[in-house]
Design brief:
single chain; about 120 residues; mainly beta; 7-stranded mixed sheet; 4-stranded antiparallel sheet; 11 strands; about 0% helix; globular
């Protein structure tokens, strides 16, 4: 199983970035996908989540209206479009997959990608 994030980097306040997470090794469309982030000295927090079909999304309050999570099950990829970025959005962003197999739960994490918002 692999979750490989891409698209991070340095952006100025007010700018935009689009993160991608390419998944392999599991039945992508049956897993809920999420983005988490962790800033230095802080706990990892949920950014956004999307169900397997993409029909339902959920966002942390501070990201609502600025971030959009989406997925392309044909490409086994989940995305996070981030707009109006603020310095407080600086963090490592992690892709997460959660599903159930034979009644048991499974979850996978990507290695994370850095997003830095600074002028």
């Amino acid at each position: 199983v692999q979750l490989v994030e891409s698209g991070g980097g340095l952006v100025q306040p007010g700018g935009s970035l689009k993160l991608s997470c390419a998944a392999s090794g599991f039945t992508f469309s049956t897993y809920s996908m999420s983005w988490y982030r962790q800033a230095p000295g802080k706990e990892r927090e949920l950014v956004a989540a999307i169900t397997g079909t993409g029909g339902t999304t959920n966002y942390a309050d501070s990201m609502k209206g600025r971030f959009t999570i989406s997925r392309d099950n044909a490409k086994n990829t989940v995305y996070l479009q981030m707009n109006s970025l603020k310095p407080d959005d600086t963090a490592a962003y992690y892709c997460h997959a959660a599903g159930t197999v034979l009644g048991g739960s499974l979850e996978y994490w990507g290695k994370g990608i850095q997003v830095t918002v600074s002028s």
